UniProtKB/TrEMBL annotation, chains A, B:
Residues 33-93 form the HTH tetR-type domain. Keywords: DNA-binding, Transcription, Transcription regulation. This is TetR/AcrR family transcriptional regulator C-terminal domain-containing protein. InterPro entries: Homeodomain-like_sf, HTH-type_TetR-like_transc_reg, HTH_TetR, Repressor_TetR_C, Tet_transcr_reg_TetR-rel_C_sf. Residues 56-75 bind DNA. Signal peptide: none annotated.
Length: 270, 270
DNA sequence: CAAGTTAGTTTATGTCGTAAGGAGTTGCAA
DNA sequence: TTGCAACTCCTTACGACATAAACTAACTTG
């Protein structure tokens, strides 16, 4: 897993991403029954439905009524396919946010949309962000937040880091919940059942828990781990609250940076 | 990849994690030449050196002069081994932070240690945080931050979410850089070379970049993407700055939450 | 129709996790 | 001392995976 972009021919890879292929001339040989787009869409369907682990060339081919090897006519390798899927999926993100209500509302809406998006496509979180794919839609997504965040008036250097940090947070938060969604189906255990069984085992295995972890025990006693809405799965509810609260904290921090910046400092810590 | 904990026998799994196995009685059969600890340590060596993708039962066995199947005497499956590796590695994190200098200094030090830790063990970031492993060292790590963050005086419910969000951020930030470290070796390309080649291709493939992404272009023009310290690899430098700045912003946000909380509100948005 | 190009299949290679069965060791009861 | 049960570790085997290589069949152009 976590494959790096551009292992093969970087030029071909970028051309595929940005769809700058030459027009479909008339060529000898059998008419192509597939296309890059068809394969990428099929790949996304497989990954959405069965998870990244189930994304195999065979599975994608099968979904299109072909063998695995048929795909290699259109796509150089599996890792390129994943890159293409990654960028293609990003296209479904909204790109316009109303800036009239202020940057904070826009950024919050953006973060929530991205979060929901990741929950719809959990496999996205398993594509390594180390060396970015550099596809068009990744840039569109970046440009979208940047437009909203420019309303903060922060200097370019600070802005760059803030965007990065915000992205990390959203990604990290989504990751915690993303696979949780599939877990109940795969393990045949609801979150509650799982948690209940686990905490029973915990007591069995660490009877001195309260002594070893006093602060955690205190938090537990304060009811910090009880959720209010019983209709939403436990772990999902918890993750949702953590996301909302964390985002608010982060945006508060941006406001602090703004006032510090407005007070004459150019950047950096106090 | 990204395997869920406790697929097999949850009780055995927890017993292995918390090392509550019965004492080594005298038993018939050949004396065991291996042990769970030996295997876990070997697994961590393999993963550290070659990455999670190269972590195979065969590879771990080989490092111990055994076959892959020999491991199954000690460890029920690969996914259990990964869980054990995960918790075992966490043991090397510091657990004591000086709280005299205030919660902020302690939390910053903690976050930096965790970040460095993840860079030392990038494979940790590929273990799904969805359904936590629930090993002893994971709890120790949590208790450690909690001890520092309790200095904020925030109520338990808020604290829980803040800790979660902070963890997400550190994880996300580490993830961006973690595999970047291996990338140059694997692709035979330094960060600069890679970036240079890529940006040339970008211009080739999207000559209208400035029109399509004006805010990004503005940021680039402001020199936001130029690093000061030339001795550190480009992408690593960038990630490091993003981490430090993002952490500061988040902690600023916590201070805001504190003052809001101290002013009489119990929780929630303004 | 012949030649050349392309789409897609079949087959094969070398990986992986792990099930099944067997070989060799050891402690203990008879 | 002998036999047996419990144990470690190995060999072999299976079905999955990505993908290389060789092939078949469809199509355009001459």
């Amino acid at each position: 897993m976590t494959v790096f972009a551009g292992q093969g021919d970087a030029r071909r890879s970028m051309a595929l991403l940005w769809r700058t292929a030459d027009p479909p001339q008339v060529r000898p040989g059998p008419r192509p029954a597939l296309s890059v787009d068809l394969i990428v869409t099929a790949g996304i369907s497989v990954a959405d439905a069965e998870g990244m682990a189930a994304l195999s060339m065979r599975a994608v081919g099968e979904r299109l009524g072909r063998t695995a090897m048929a795909l290699y006519t259109y796509v150089p390798s599996k890792s390129e396919l994943v890159d293409l899927m990654y960028d293609h999926a990003l296209a479904e993100l909204p790109t316009d946010y109303d800036l009239a209500a202020g940057w904070r509302a826009a950024v919050t809406a953006w973060a929530e949309d991205v979060w929901e998006f990741y929950l719809r496509h959990p496999w996205m979180l398993q594509v390594s962000p180390a060396r970015p794919v550099l596809g068009p839609n990744e840039y569109v997504m970046l440009e979208t937040v940047l437009r909203a965040l420019r309303g903060t008036g922060l200097p370019a250097g600070v802005l760059r880091r803030v965007v990065g940090a915000l992205t990390h947070f959203v990604r990290g938060a989504a990751q915690t919940i993303a696979e949780t969604r599939r877990a109940p189906a795969e393990t045949g255990m609801s979150d509650e059942e799982w948690w209940y069984a686990r905490s029973a085992l915990l007591q069995e295995v660490a009877p001195d828990f309260a002594d070893r972890f006093p602060v955690m025990t205190w938090m537990d006693g304060e009811g910090a781990y009880r959720s209010e809405d019983e209709t939403v799965p436990y772990l999902e509810q918890e993750a949702r609250e953590t996301f909302a609260a964390g985002l608010a904290v982060f945006l508060d921090g941006i406001e602090t940076a703004m006032s510090r910046n407005g007070a004459g400092r150019t950047s950096g810590r106090p």
